[in-house]
Design goal:
This protein is α+β, with helices and mostly antiparallel strands. The protein is built from ten helices and five strands; from the N terminus they run E-E-E-H-E-E-H-H-H-H-H-H-H-H-H. It has a five-stranded antiparallel β-sheet. Strand 1 (19-33) and strand 2 (39-46) form a beta hairpin.
Length: 338
């Protein structure tokens, strides 16, 4: 009597120690060298909700296939043991079989769309709302035209890219979702604090607090990517980073348009360059205006809350705490009932 073929299990549903068949996208294959000079590969397989690492050492039987045959952006069927390391997070402990996905695998539930993590919100609708907020809340006409011009010129990557490769909003459309969320928060904060601090002269500038351009430099920081694969850094993105690239987009476009108040441009450049607040986070300058303080905390809160929610909502471990999140560097409490 023939042995029944195992039914594939979604990668995101595997539990530590489970041996199973599953489909995955090879999202990363990076060559490295040990301190003894021996080569190895760090591979990362993923579906839409989980990414797992697999180390391929030189003495592994998988080293030659990995080096010569495995291709980033291709789908595979794997038979492996899943584990979760306290420091390094989800990983494959043992790999027993691996092959390319075939058309026959669709009968077992394979669907490439299941591997494309994307924003749960419609990107076209979000982009329209962002432009509507700019039109309604930026009173200075030349500055409003500058913002709308930059949005229209970079509409495609803004709607396609993640906010980051592997930290917050790391999925297609994440950059736009994050930008819209931070913009909404800043507008609410502006309304509250403009009314609260009436003695401030000049008052908090609502036009600057639209915050729409704070991360726009990421459209130049990241390159095109295969579907489902995190985008690589461009050369300018690696050398300069999104803060400098965003400042240059604003400065060059303002010069092109020619009618934006130079002081407003300077303040906008400062917000872009300093909104991360700390040099160790990437800001070349500290925030020196109150608008940047509000932008920084709205941006930081939005990024961290997204990471918390993603960790809490996707964790499958037993007990009252999540597995240690390698980005947050902590285990979150999920055992609450209120």
């Amino acid at each position: 009597m023939s042995k029944a073929k195992p039914t594939p299990v979604p990668l995101c549903e595997l539990t530590p120690g489970q041996h199973a068949d599953f489909f995955a996208l090879l999202a990363e294959k990076t060559r490295g060298t040990t301190s003894q000079g021996k080569p190895y590969f760090t591979c990362r397989f993923r579906d839409a909700r989980r990414s797992v690492a697999f180390m391929v050492w030189q003495d592994s039987p998988w080293y030659e296939p990995c080096e010569c045959e495995w291709q980033v952006g291709q789908f595979y069927k794997l038979r492996a043991v899943y584990g979760e390391h306290e420091r390094y997070g989800p990983q494959l402990i043992e790999l027993h079989a691996l092959r390319l996905v075939t058309d026959d695998d669709r009968a077992d539930g394979f669907d490439p769309l299941l591997f494309m993590e994307r924003s749960r919100y419609d990107t076209a609708a979000m982009f329209t709302e962002l432009k509507t907020l700019a039109t309604a809340h930026i009173a200075d006409e030349p500055l409003r035209r500058l913002v709308l011009t930059l949005l229209d010129r970079h509409a495609e990557p803004l709607q396609r890219l993640p906010a980051t490769r592997d930290r917050f909003y790391p999925f297609a459309g994440g950059l736009l979702e994050h930008t819209l969320s931070v913009t909404r928060s800043c507008l609410q904060l502006a309304e509250r604090y403009v009314a609260h601090y009436t003695e401030l002269r000049p008052p908090l500038n609502r036009d600057l607090l639209a915050a729409i351009l704070h991360d726009l430099g990421r459209v130049l920081e990241f390159s095109e990517a295969l579907p489902g694969v995190s985008p690589a850094h461009t050369v300018p993105g690696r050398l300069l980073g999104h803060l400098i690239l965003g400042r240059d987009l604003v400065r060059d476009t303002a010069r092109e348009l020619g009618d934006v108040n130079p002081e407003l441009v300077q303040m906008l450049e400062h917000l872009i360059l300093s909104h991360l607040a700390l040099p160790e986070w990437g800001s070349p300058r500290l925030p020196l205006v109150p608008e940047c303080l509000l932008l920084h905390h709205a941006d930081d809160l939005d990024a961290k809350l997204e990471m918390y929610v993603r960790c809490l909502s996707r964790d499958h471990s037993e007990g009252p705490f999540t597995e240690r999140d390698p980005v947050l560097n902590r285990q979150l409490f999920k055992g609450r009932s209120v």
